[in-house]
Here is the input.
Amino acid sequence: MKIKTGYLYHIKDEYFDVVNDENLMQNHERGKKRPTYFTIKDKDILWFIPISSKIDKYQKIIDKKIEKYGFCNTILIEKIFNEDAAILIQNAFPTLERYIDHVHTVDGKPARVPKKLEQTILKNFKNLMKLHNRGIKIFFIDIDKLKEKMLEEIK
Here is the structure.
């Protein structure tokens, strides 16, 4: 399977057993597989950003962040395939291609977010990574620990 940035994928349960991190989103919404993930390909590492349908929950968080900071770039609410979706950049985590279960499909075709939305997600992710690299805690999980674990698996 050729993995591409901007497409949506599902992850295998095996990943969660391997990394054993209780801070990762592990819910099964409405009897479906784990959340759908927006994927960023970064050499051998894939960054998965969860997509949630719980708009009301995340809108409240966005509103509080805007009230406090004047903006929110950790969560986006946008239309994906004509439905509102919360894009949880703050919940991003690294993984490997071997842990991808399958590509998300819509009408039998691999699902890709619109190019403009992809660019917005990538811009926000890069900005959050810059803050992270300066020592500012943005992400809910220890992405450095998980990335190191993934890189060790590649060796």
Q: What stands out?
A: The chain has one domain: 8-154. DSSP finds four helices and nine strands in the chain.
